[in-house]
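Appendix B. Raw example, untouched.
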Amino acid sequence: MSLSRQKVLIPDKAQAPVVGASSHWPSRSEKAEHTHFRHQLMYSQKGVIRVTTPTGAWILPPTKSIWISGGTPHALLVKRPVELIILWIARNAPGAPDWSGCKVVSVSPLIRELLSVCSQQPWDYPPASRSSHLAQVLLEQLEVHEQAPLELPELTDPRAKRVAAMLRADPADRRPLAKLAAAAGASHRTIERLFATETRMSFGRWRLRHRMITALENLANGDSVSNVADAVGYESPSSFIAAFKDSFGTTPTTYFENMHNRRVSKE
């Protein structure tokens, strides 16, 4: 399904239970917060996408996709060009998982191929068709990825939001919590309590998660390890690599080599 056809057809009114489209998004593209009645499964074949909702933000490299439950408000942002696949799934589609909110889904070689094929099917295929069977196989293969730290929970308290905004504006900010809290008009104990209550993460863990998500996005967009290390507040590339490995289970070089190998094997 091309982008031009996607503009003509309305996913929520499609006849088939699973319909899709692939499209190219240029640099600095974004789509304001919106909702669909249908569930969505979103995957970037090339490039990195940022998905935000009122409760959190996700950075998705080409090894992961994201499930967005129907009715969930969300916005999209890409900083560099991406090749994006989106599937829209009816709430009663056979095999559809019973998930709420947003879930990160691992993209195995099989799922990657099924995403590509399903995005190219007509939007009015009959229930007993080959297209219908492929869509059901895809949905039955989906599994939530439990370990990848790709989600950053949002905060609601104005004081905690001010602290988060400072770190988002400058991920390399090394000020201790006490100074950040004072700048936000609160005590460090209050901010620590708010982060723990609202995100179920300590402030230190949230800050690390933010740094790693920012680093992953910058690395996927082609920035060097040394530049990324400096951009997210590490004194040396080696200390950054150690933190990245602790978060993602591998070094930045190996992480993106594996991603490249997946694309090459597909081609």
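End of appendix B.
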